[in-house]
Amino acid sequence: MGGRLTRVFRTFNVESRARREISKEKPTPAPRHPTSRLDELADRPEIQEEIYRKDDRLLTLLKDVYVESRDPPVRVKDGGGEHLPCKQEEKRLTKLGHLGDLDVKKVPKGKISIVEALTLLNNHKLHPQTWTAEKIAVEYSLELKEVNSLLEFFIPFTVQEFPKETRKAI
């Protein structure tokens, strides 16, 4: 309904409005600024002739030029504290989860997969005396400082199921 109403107002008196716009005086464009340099070159034919004329002396000198380029020898810069990644990183086999083919098979030492992270966090939460930070660091080839940070700042979720009687009370 709204579309019909707007279409009526849009098409109302279209022809007379179009004629009125067409019959209006066109605005005169602003005057162009005279550029002295370009106008000067265009007016003087001897300068134009000098520009387009070939100079044989310069042409022969140009033909005599021979350029031979060589790349400088490649130097390896010593980056100081920066270490370039090694192609042969030391890897370890992961403790595989339940996803089979989708699980990551090999992880670089000092890192863990998502499945392993969730597993070790859950093990530590359920049995903190058995799964201490030192044991986790040895088991997963991690640094003790990183394991302590991981256990301090990441806590896995717990799923709580309420009995049917208390669901209505909640």
Provide a compact summary of the structure:
Helix content is 48%, strand content 4%. The protein is mainly alpha-helical and 170 residues long.
Give a description of the structure.
The protein has 170 residues and is mainly α. Among the domains are: 37-66, no CATH class; 91-153. Helices cover 48% and strands 4% of the residues. The protein contains 9 helices and 2 strands, in the order αααααββαααα. The chain has helices at 2-11, 14-23, 36-43, 45-52, 56-64, 114-126, 133-140, 144-153, 164-169; strands at residues 91-93, 106-108. It has a two-stranded antiparallel ribbon with strand order 1-2. α7 (133-140) packs across α8 (144-153). It starts with a helix and ends with a helix. 4% of the residues are buried.
Mean pLDDT, nearest integer? Answer: 79
Radius of gyration: 41 Å
Count every helix, treating DSSP H or I runs of 4 or more residues as helices: 9
Low-confidence stretches: none
Please summarize the sheet with the most strands: 2 strands, antiparallel
Structural class: mainly alpha
Q: What share of the residues does DSSP label as strand, in percent?
A: under 5%
Through-space gap between termini: 47 Å
What is the succession of H and E elements? HHHHHEEHHHH
Q: Percent of residues in helical segments?
A: 40-55%
